[in-house]
Every structure is written in C-alpha cells, then in structure tokens.
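Quick one:
INPUT:
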C-alpha cells in the first residue's frame, strides 16, 4: 500500500530490492499503484499523468488517433533517464518524446494533414467525374432505363 504525504508531495513505495523508497511526487502524477508498482523493483517506479486523448469524429463514433501522457521514471538509467517526458501511444505502442521530439511529431502530423487535404481534393475530382458519368450511363449498364417494356 502506498503512503502519500500530501503536504510534502512525497510518496513511499515499498520495493522488493530497496525496501520502502520515499519519492517526490510531481503534481501531475495520478499516484496510482499501477504506476508506482508497490512490491516491484525500485527502477520500475513510474510517475504518470492521466492520458490526453487526441480524437476525431467518424461515421462510427469517436476514434482515438493517439494518446499522450507525462511520465517520469526517477530511478531508471535508460533514456530519457530520470527527467519527465511525454509518452505518446501510436500504433499500439508507447514512444517516449522530449520537447523537440514533440515538435517534430507536430510537424509530421501537420504534413499528414496536408496530405489528407490533397486526398480530399482528389476524392472531390473522382466523385465529380463519377457523378458526371452517371448522367450519360449507357442503358446496358443501367437496366432500369430504356427497357422498353
């Protein structure tokens, strides 16, 4: 069980390798036991914010395009070491991002938006061409017209 001390913003996490570990808890951390992993290894202690969902409306309801959250792993030795970062979920996996990485991702998403607009323009052309041919469809292709019965 986690021991939260709201006045000092610390949390004590029981670990299997270092005993009780007192850790400063960022104000954005949800403080859940899944993140702090009581009884686990100290290196696995994680602070995480709630997810920020980036969604869009579709004909089948709302779809999540990607998720992001603030995260910090105070005892890790792996990049991005123990500093806060934003973890972004894409294609079913989470990818750590620093601020420069987030700006690059934003630029990439803007470029993808431009490509989607170009596809929309092309679809307009295809739809207009399709609509134009519907007015001059040969009777063999449209058995309801010109059946002569």
């Amino acid at each position: 069980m986690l021991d939260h001390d709201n006045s000092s913003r610390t949390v004590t996490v029981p670990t299997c390798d270092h005993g009780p570990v007192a850790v400063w808890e960022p104000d954005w951390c949800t403080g859940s036991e899944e993140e702090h992993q009581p009884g686990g290894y100290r290196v696995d202690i994680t602070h995480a914010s709630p997810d920020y969902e980036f969604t869009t409306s579709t004909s089948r309801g709302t779809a999540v395009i990607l998720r992001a959250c603030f995260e910090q792993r105070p005892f890790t030795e792996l990049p991005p070491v123990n500093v806060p970062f934003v973890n972004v979920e894409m294609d079913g996996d989470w990818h750590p991002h620093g601020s420069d990485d987030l700006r690059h991702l934003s630029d990439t998403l803007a470029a993808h938006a431009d490509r989607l607009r170009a596809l929309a323009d092309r679809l307009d052309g295809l739809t207009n061409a399709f609509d134009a041919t519907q007015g001059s469809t040969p009777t063999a292709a449209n058995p309801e017209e010109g059946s002569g019965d």
